[in-house]
Each structure stands twice: as C-alpha cells, then as structure tokens.
C-alpha cells in the first residue's frame, strides 16, 4: 500500500473523511507539504511518525487537508430561527437557568460568536449563556481564541452586523471581551464527543457543513451521537445538503424555512427501520407471501426501481463544495452548464433544487426535484426535500409518503453497501 493510500485510510478511520470526496491528488499535495518531496531519511522518519501516531506530522496533515470556511451570521436564517426559538419557546419555559450551545466544527470562531450575539440580542443575560465550540484544526482554534477578524469574515449582506460587539484593531475587528468570554474553545473530533457528553444536554447544536467530506458511516455516527447530546426540546442546525442525513437518523424538521434546523423526533430513518422490522416479522411468519406483498406495496407507494445511476458528471463534486461554502451562484452555474452539455443526472438536478430552495424559490426547487425523481425514483435527497416542501405547504399526507419512500431508499442503499462489503 502506498503512503498516500495508507494516509487516506487513516483519515477515514480517525476522522471519518471519505476517500472519494477527499481525492488522491489533495492527499498527495498535503503529504508533499508535511513530508517533503524528496526521498530522504528525514522524510522516511516523518512518514513513520505520521503513520504511527497522532503527533505533529498528523496535525500538520489535518491542517493541509481541512480548509475551514465561515463568516459571521453565515446564511442568516439559522440565526433568525435561533432568536425566535429563544424568545418564543426557551425563555418562557426557563425564567431562570443557563442556555447551553455547542458549535462543532467551529472553524475560526465566527459561528459561535454569532450564536453568542444572537442570544444576547434575543434577551438572554450574559450570565445565562454557555457556548462550547470545538474543531479538529489547531490553526483555526488559535485564530478563534484571538478573536480578531478581517473583511472576509463579514460577508453576510443581511445587515445583522452589530458594531457594538466589536472593537476596531489594526488587524481588523476584535470581538469584545464580554462576548468572547461566553465561548469556550477546545480541540475535538466529531467522531469522539465524549468531552461533551459530560456537559449535555445542549439547548442548541450547530453542526453546519461538518459532514461535507464524511463517508456514510461517519455521517450516521455523528448524527446519532449529536442526537444524544441534544435537549429533548432543543434545535440542531445543519447545512442544507446535510439535512437529509440528520432526518434519516431520527430528527424531524423544524418549522422555519431555510434555517435547515431540526429537532429530536421520529424521522424517516426510524420510520423506515420500524417498517422494515414489521415487514421482516410478517414475512418470517408467512414465508409464501413476501414477493407478492413487496410488489403490492411498491405499486401503492412508489414507482418501480430505477436503472443503475450513471457515473457522477465531472464538475458535480466541485459544484457541491461551492454550494456548501455558500457560493450558490457559482454552484448553480456549473450545474446549468452540465445540463446544457446533456448531463442526465439526478444529482445535478437535486443540487439545483437545493440552491433554488435556499434562494426562496420553492416552485423552481420543486420542479428540479421532480425531474431528479423522474430520472431516479429512489433518489434519497430529492425525496427528503420533496417531503419538507410538502410539509411546509400543509400536505401532511404527501410529506409522509415522500418520507416513507426516502426511508425505504435509505435502507436499500444501506443493504447494497453491506453486500458490497461482504
């Protein structure tokens, strides 16, 4: 096994990063920075340390592979949702006590500080606020603790910037001490949340764009682990492309458009597992009927299975990364180009649907998701978004049907992955 392959496996095992999404080229570039290009004895020593421990070489590799991207009040709507939740639900139910929040990954700190400012604006006294923030990047955490930010950290156009929370410095704007002290920064891995179990439950958790490069196994583990940390009446905020993974793990969408917030609840994954177990029990008792029952259920609730999906069009992964960084126009441009070049891929259409939904154009989003489902009736992400759109429009039964189909699609994918591993 090559050094790049061994390191890629370590990144998957230790951090949950997907080898396919990381890409061999990015790992090889990071290795050149950490180990050097020439085959020297020093490079050999560094390689041995990198593969054997989580020391200095390992941390340097993480810094090269993971590139944090964030800014104050990113996307804005999640913070509006948080303010509404605190003012309308949490404060009336908690006349005393502390509001606790967890931001992971926190990157360079703009998000947890935005949470602190939102809570203060919502009427919470500083003494009643506790925010834990964590990231795997020591470089990002050092910048967060310094709390001085340049222009790139103030990109939000919503007008949410509050000058009274900052002090002008030669290097930019520094978060005021009375706000900065509300946030405790620490190094932590999303796959190892033991530190936070001792401080749970949290009233709100921000885990936005933390799963971009994760494989399916790691996404499921993180979603379930965070659910255990969340208060029964709490909110979890995630990225728009990650919301389906949390819904599949047993969350329910919150009633606030474009916030991509969810609560504990019986989501698609749990419903699907329950249905799956019920079917398994029935077929165990009546061995002659399963194939007929399966056909009848499919005719009632979903179209026949689609043909195997084509290979991912070149450029789609780049468009997804741009969308996850908030560069929606650039991501949409790539998707539209791919469609213009004749790409017939549900992933391209679904991403355009997500972008249009993020922009508030529900009708256009719905059309793209329908086109994606025409190409692949079992396209999980499109099914979940159609469920959310139906629910927002008051179509409870339609939402239920889409969510049930998504649950079956999820279990089907899991079954296929399990067979591939055998």
CATH class of the largest domain: Alpha Beta
- CATH architecture name of the largest domain: 3-Layer(aba) Sandwich
Distance between the termini: 21 Å
User: How many domains comprise the coordinates?
Assistant: 3
Mean pLDDT: 80
Give me the secondary-structure category: alpha/beta
What's the total count of β strands? Answer: 10
| Largest sheet descriptor | 7 strands, mixed
Structure description:
The chain is α/β, with parallel strands linked by helices. The chain has three domains: 3-65, no CATH class; 77-265, Vaccinia Virus protein VP39 (Rossmann fold), CATH 3.40.50.150; 316-421, Tetratricopeptide repeat domain (Serine Threonine Protein Phosphatase 5, Tetratricopeptide repeat, Alpha Horseshoe), CATH 1.25.40.10. It has helices at residues 3-15, 19-22, 24-35, 41-52, 56-65, 77-93, 110-121, 138-146, 177-180, 194-197, 216-229, 243-248, 268-285, 290-301, 316-324, 328-340, 346-358, 362-375, 380-392, 396-421; strands at residues 99-103, 129-135, 148-149, 166-169, 172-175, 183-187, 202-207, 230-238, 251-253, 261-264. The strands form two sheets. The chain has a seven-stranded mixed beta sheet. Strand 9 and strand 10 form a beta hairpin. It is globular. It starts with a helix and ends with a helix. 40% of the residues are buried. Residues 267-310 have low confidence and may be disordered.
